[in-house]
Amino acid sequence: MQDYEYMQLAVDAAQQAQWRPWKNPRVGAVIVKDDHILAVGYHHQYGDVHAEIDAYQQVADKQQLVGATIYVTLEPCAHTGKQPSCATQMLAWGLQRVVVGQIDPNPLVTKHGVERLRAAGVQVDIWPIPVSEAINPAFHYFFTHQLPYVTLKVAQSLNGKITAASNEATKITSAVVDEDSHTLRAYQQAIIIGSTTALVDQPSLAVRHVHTQHQPLRVIIDRRGRLVNSAAVTQDNTLIITENADFATQAEQVSYLKVVTPQTILHLLGQRGIQAVLVEGGSELHAAFVQAHAYQEIIVYQTTGLLPNTGVSSFGTADSMTDLGKIKNVKVIDNTLKVTIKREEA
Ligand SMILES: NC(=O)c1ccc[n+]([C@@H]2O[C@H](COP(=O)([O-])OP(=O)(O)OC[C@H]3O[C@@H](n4cnc5c(N)ncnc54)[C@H](OP(=O)(O)O)[C@@H]3O)[C@@H](O)[C@H]2O)c1
């Protein structure tokens, strides 16, 4: 097998973890000696051992590691976090070569892992095309821009309506589609909704149907303070962002910003280390994010039902889905099209 085939195996292994690494990147590793695969490993879950160590633990005879090559999708870490530094541990294995899929954008790691290995005489090759970013868009975006990666999510009828009327909650998707959107939630550290959606739907915003150890932070945008005295104010794991200074003094969960815009919201969440954010609407809030170009991805669950033409339209201003970006993926789930759109960054 060739280098690229081993690296592809490492990428496939990384993806097996799905949402479970949470804020950590999905990483895969393959250890090879004399064209023979000794082990395939990945980072299974937030807080667990890293991919390199997962692969290492599967090699029964550690002598086989002497002179071996490891393919790893992201630079081995050089700092002690929840786990000891991988680069330091790897030095004891007697590896001949380390092939790194991409340099880690986290400043605690960037190039330090590679430098530590090279300084000890290990050959380190950096993959010519970065492989980790495609597996971990939010992780790379966050460490490159110090802002969360934003996905707008909407479920709409065939005629592009998200609800029959603004003051009314309309069920649009089936239970099977709901399960898919809960998986989408499990990848996020925060979910944002507008004040009307909070008042009308009162959604729990929790991840259900999918096993996760982390619930995303509920973020409600309430510039005017319409949620004063509502149950949301005392809910745990909740952040209400407001321009109403009096409201902000009433509870710890309420944060004051002089001007609330998509940019100031994302700046605040970025400061809190939130890498991935899902904006679940409604229409006005989505329109504000679209107008500000404050999103990287949109997921539309396009159902086949119709709602009254007087209902609330998705995204307010955009004429069609193609105005929002490039359609990257279309999948059918239970009679519903799941359309993934990526915005072309300027
Ligand atoms: N089918 C779906 O996927 C779906 C999803 C969610 C909601 N819905 C439905 O949508 C309806 C509510 O939608 P809606 O459009 O009426 O209201 P909404 O988006 O829930 O609420 C409007 C929000 O946008 C904020 N906002 C407006 N312009 C802004 C700007 N330039 N910068 C920052 N924030 C801005 C408002 O802040 P202030 O309130 O502080 O002014 C408010 O929080 C409900 O009926 C709900 O059931 C459907």
TrEMBL record:
Annotated family: In the N-terminal section; belongs to the cytidine and deoxycytidylate deaminase family.
Domain CMP/dCMP-type deaminase: 1-125
Functional summary from the UniProt entry: Converts 2,5-diamino-6-(ribosylamino)-4(3h)-pyrimidinone 5'-phosphate into 5-amino-6-(ribosylamino)-2,4(1h,3h)-pyrimidinedione 5'-phosphate.
PROSITE patterns: CYT_DCMP_DEAMINASES_2 (PS51747)
Cofactor details (free text): Binds 1 zinc ion.
Cofactor(s) needed for function: Zn(2+)
Pathway participation: Cofactor biosynthesis; riboflavin biosynthesis; 5-amino-6-(D-ribitylamino)uracil from GTP: step 2/4; Cofactor biosynthesis; riboflavin biosynthesis; 5-amino-6-(D-ribitylamino)uracil from GTP: step 3/4
Catalytic reaction(s) noted: 5-amino-6-(5-phospho-D-ribitylamino)uracil + NADP(+) = 5-amino-6-(5-phospho-D-ribosylamino)uracil + NADPH + H(+); 2,5-diamino-6-hydroxy-4-(5-phosphoribosylamino)-pyrimidine + H2O + H(+) = 5-amino-6-(5-phospho-D-ribosylamino)uracil + NH4(+)
Protein name: Riboflavin biosynthesis protein RibD
Organism in which the protein naturally occurs: Periweissella ghanensis
Entry's EC annotation: 3.5.4.26, 1.1.1.193
Highest rank taxon of the organism: Bacteria
